[in-house]
Specification:
- This protein has twelve helices and no strands.
- It has 300 residues and is mainly alpha-helical.
- The longest helix has 26 residues.
- The C terminus is likely disordered.
């Protein structure tokens, strides 16, 4: 039987996935070709938020240790962030009318994580590549949230694009330097032995990250296509690498496994959300049928 540490995050993610797929059915039917992949951006973004939000309640004591020690009421902030993540997940997945405001607030929260937690960690351990990767990962998550909120103010598109592109380029370099580690967000997990030609997948992901990050940073007309392909690749990694790792993990490693699944799926979501604000397509990460913006143009 699954413990509450695993059951509630898994259940919250599954319910959000079902609700998100139902809410996106018309957008998916209307999209064509690779544009159909972009429709999954808000879903892939919201499902991990629900997973992590539920984990803030089921594993609160452990997560509270991440709160900076100088902040009072550490358990309060743990629950508050959990509630904020679940609320944002439901709002974005179901495409509620205020979902873009939720996305903006969520992006600000991720920026606070970077400033208050990750930058001090980087300053204390400047040679630790994992700490750098975690800091830039959360910067990319903020970029994805701002991409979803970009219809509120057009300049936010530039911020979102840079916040996503810079981590992609850093991650690309890490994949070339350490292709033996599991592809996606370059953390400490080594690719399992059962994966064939392990180094190849690391280098392939690194190349996709490099191309997508470079085209996104210079605002190339190819950026939308490159980011959509990268988002598709990362989604496949979730399905055929990280999900099997989770499903075959022993009981003590199940929590780590579900976190890797959610983390990588969230990464796929932010890449697809960034693709949606790039020029050249007709679909947007719309969160409400009454709030669909016009496709971005080069003049904006």
């Amino acid at each position: 039987m699954l413990s509450r540490l695993i059951f509630w995050p898994w259940y919250a993610g599954l319910m959000t996935l079902v609700g998100g797929l139902f809410a996106a059915r018309k957008s998916f039917s209307a999209a064509e070709g690779l544009e159909k992949v972009i429709v999954f951006g808000p879903i892939f973004f919201s499902v991990p938020l629900a997973v992590f939000g539920a984990e803030h309640f089921s594993n609160s004591r452990s997560i509270s240790q991440i709160v900076p020690p100088w902040m009072p009421a550490r358990m309060f902030w743990t629950y508050f962030v959990g509630f904020a993540l679940i609320s944002a997940a439901v709002s974005i997945a179901l495409r509620m009318i205020h979902a873009r405001i939720s996305a903006m607030l969520l992006g600000i929260m991720f920026i606070c994580f970077v400033l208050m937690i990750h930058i001090p960690n980087v300053a204390a351990n400047p040679n630790n590549r994992i700490i750098w990767a975690v800091a830039l990962r959360d910067l990319a998550f903020a970029g994805g949230a701002f991409a979803l909120a970009a219809a509120l103010m057009k300049p936010i598109r530039v911020v979102a694009r840079v916040f996503v592109a810079v981590p992609l380029l850093f991650f690309a370099v890490e994949h070339f330097l350490h292709p033996e580690f599991a592809p996606g967000v370059p953390l400490a997990k080594v690719t399992p032995d059962w994966v064939p030609i392990r180094a190849f997948w690391g280098c392939l992901t690194g190349a996709a990250l490099l191309i997508s990050g470079a085209t996104m940073l210079v605002d190339s007309r190819r950026a939308r296509f490159a980011a959509t392909l990268l988002g598709s690749l990362i989604t496949l990694l979730v399905l055929f690498l990280y999900l099997p790792i989770f499903l075959t993990a022993a009981q003590p490693a199940l929590l780590e496994g579900i976190n890797y699944v959610a983390d990588t799926l969230l990464f796929a979501g932010i890449v697809l959300l960034a693709a949606a604000i790039m020029p050249g397509g007709v679909s947007q990460p719309a969160v409400s049928r009454d709030e669909v913006p016009a496709p971005p143009s080069r003049a904006q």
